Amino acid sequence: MNSQSIVDQIPALRRYARALTGDAWAADDLVQDTLERACSKWRLWAVGSNLRAWLFTLMHNLFANSVRTAKRQSPDGTVDIDDVAHEFHAADPGVDQAIDLQRCLLRLPMDQRAVLLLVSLEDMSYADVARITAVPMGTVMSRLSRARRHLQELLDEPARTAQPASATGKPTGSVTPLRRVK
Amino acid sequence: MSHRKNTMDRTAQQPLTEDEIHALVDERLTPDALAAVHKRLAHDPAAQSTIAQWQQHRDALRRLHQHILDEPVPAPLMAAGQQTAAAQQDIHQRWRWGGMAAGVMLAFGVGWFSHTAWLGAGHFPPSSSTLAYTGGAPEFARQASFAHAVYAPEIRHPVEVGATEQEHLVQWLSKRVGKPLKVPHLQTQGFELVGGRLLPGEAGARAQFMYQNTAGTRITLYLGAVDRTAIGAGAGVGADIRETGFQFRADGPVPSFYWVDQGFGYALAGPVPRETLMKLAEAVYRQL
Question: Average pLDDT for residues B28-41, to the nearest whole number?
């Protein structure tokens, strides 16, 4: 009955997890955990409601928890991008650019990265992203703004180092500040 | 009129808000809103450059792991997905079956009530009255099907004793069901033993062996003594129950084949096509 629809979600879940974690193994582990979670939590899913959004919510919560745990255990739980560089299959823009983008992505704070990916990669509506990440719409929009500014700054940095920098610098006026109207 | 034109000009020159820029980049604007935003964009070079940058990010991000969407899903994830889907189906069916189970409980309750009423009046009910709600062999198959629905979706605790402790498993379950058991091998059919567990039944303990194939599909073999009361009654029903041929049932949460051999019932249940289940049941029968 629903076997097709849940199995159909796996490729998208894998891609999102991969961009989120930057690591193929960690990503598939996260997908596996998400599916297992869904298995034990089916009662909480209202039949007919958005299965995709529900699965992404489960994944988001699992990932957020693991990031919190990792932070408690060690301040530097990030994957060294050079260890996983061989895993990137970039299409036309070339392998270097893809590695670069993933590296910059991993330097975004987790909340900003999740919002940016759900919107850009998964084409989730802003309202769905708000539900998935359990924050108000306004927060989603401001996280999206910060993520996009921040990503541009990181991509603009002339000499990037391979270190997962702790320098999560404040936006400096490289992009003209825009007015926000809510 | 001129006043209105001024207001429109001013609106047309208003810089884009950040939310509008996101909506434009993420292609969330309706055609009307898009046209209006485009007009204002002409007067807003800052927004133009931001949009160009953010559109580039968006395109790059969408290309980044695009290949994953076309890759075959790794087998363990596929198995987990199928299992999750099966669990969902079971829950769905249990809602439906819940109603019937409530009906059985009610019948039992009424039976019990009249039973005690009889006792109070100094009568003992004839043993055949108990047959009304202990359905014998078909009931056995139904219980097997429910036991499958309950335990097969379990990820962490599908069995009490795993296949690695097979010897212990067999000794333990043989002792509890009161008959030396053998665990049938179903590797030829692609199913490996996961393990087993003990379950309550009407005439004592029942055992469940669980098997799984590489696709993550699970089947269970449920066995135990069938209702002793029914057998002991010696009436038509009891005689039928001592031995039966293979019988197929598709009305439980999962289909099952069951048979009774020397007062001992066997049911093989699982979400597989009837022919597959039949072949598996034959393989089990040959080995017992």
Answer: 91
3-state DSSP call for residue B218? strand
- Kind and range of the H or E element at B44? none
When computed from its CA atoms, the radius of gyration of chain B, rounded to whole angstroms, is: 32
State whether the Cα torsion B258-B151-B135-B129 is positive or negative.
Answer: positive
Check A10 against B91: CB less than 8 A apart: no
Instruction: Quote the CA–CA distance of B242 and B271 in Å, as a whole number.
Output: 27
- How far are the Cα atoms of A24, A32, A65, A74, B168 from residue A29, in angstroms, in the given order? 9, 5, 14, 20, 33
User: Tens digit of pLDDT for each residue in A41-89?
Assistant: 777 766 667 889 989 999 999 999 888 877 666 545 455 555 555 555 4
Half-sphere exposure of B233 (CA within 13 A, CB side): 20
pTM exceeds 0.90 for this model: no
Summarize pLDDT for B52-106 with one digit per residue, the tens: 999 999 999 999 899 999 989 998 899 888 888 888 777 666 655 554 555 455 4
How far apart CA A61 and CA A15 sit, in angstroms, is: 17
Residue A165 lies in a domain: no
Sign of CA dihedral B100, B103, B108, B109: positive
Specify the CATH number for the domain of residue B87. Answer: 3.30.200.100
**A172 within domain boundaries:** no
Residue span of the structural domain in which B38 resides: 2-69
User: For an interface test with A, which of B84, B95, B155, B217 has the most A Cβ atoms less than 10 Å from its Cβ?
Assistant: B84
Chain A interface mutation, best of B62, B77, B78, highest count of A Cβ atoms under 10 Å? B77
This complex has an ipTM of 0.75
